[in-house]
């Protein structure tokens, strides 16, 4: 795993997919530029984010999209910590193939080395600090209708948090289509996504 400080993520939202809107990003680092199409991006809004990122894999992706061959160097993110955010100007980006619709790519991959104990300890401390911030009280009204949640959209713990109008932290490792549906439901109920905490808060 590689930790990259002072990285820039330019996140764009693609809205024309039959599976619902999704996000992609251009990752700029001091050692190269990469495409990122990980599920965790689907919770974010468009913008330019300065962040520390943990890269678990760098690989070559090749696929056919709308009759054209596409070759990309991609980075797979294990985690990220947002430092600052700026809005992006409106950009009519070309049509992008939804990662859910991508055929299995041919990958020539380079895995980052296994993290050392010190790296793991540092990542754990980083996570603990973020969870401490997450636990700080932030009053909010309850969403309009928890009963309207489709069966299976949220597990029991998340439903309890929603009923109490507590902050909601989604699991980005679940099925990507499920994550998109969860994020879309929270937005519809008036929740705002905090990119620094990667947590949803009901509006006050």
From TrEMBL:
Species annotation: Paracidovorax valerianellae
Residue ranges, annotated region (Disordered): 87-146
Ranges of Basic and acidic residues composition bias in the record: 114-136
Record InterPro entries: DUF3275
Protein name: DUF3275 family protein
Taxonomic placement: Bacteria, Pseudomonadati, Pseudomonadota, Betaproteobacteria, Burkholderiales
């Amino acid at each position: 795993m590689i930790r990259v400080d002072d990285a820039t993520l330019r996140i764009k939202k693609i809205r024309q997919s039959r599976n619902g809107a999704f996000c992609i990003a251009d990752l700029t680092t001091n050692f190269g530029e990469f495409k990122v199409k990980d599920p965790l991006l689907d919770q974010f809004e468009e913008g330019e984010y300065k962040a520390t990122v943990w890269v678990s894999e760098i690989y070559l992706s090749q696929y056919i999209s709308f009759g054209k061959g596409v070759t990309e160097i991609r980075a797979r993110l294990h985690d990220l910590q947002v430092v600052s955010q700026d809005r992006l100007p409106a950009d009519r980006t070309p049509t992008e193939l939804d990662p859910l619709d991508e055929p299995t790519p041919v990958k020539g991959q380079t895995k980052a080395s296994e993290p050392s104990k010190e790296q793991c300890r540092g990542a754990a401390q980083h996570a603990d600090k973020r969870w401490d911030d997450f636990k700080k009280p932030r009053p909010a009204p309850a969403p309009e209708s928890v009963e309207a949640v489709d069966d299976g959209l949220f597990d029991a713990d998340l439903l309890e948090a929603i009923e109490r109008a507590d902050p909601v932290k989604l699991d980005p490792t679940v099925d990507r289509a499920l994550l998109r549906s969860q994020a879309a439901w929270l937005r519809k109920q008036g929740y705002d996504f905090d990119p620094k905490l990667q947590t949803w808060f009901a509006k006050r």
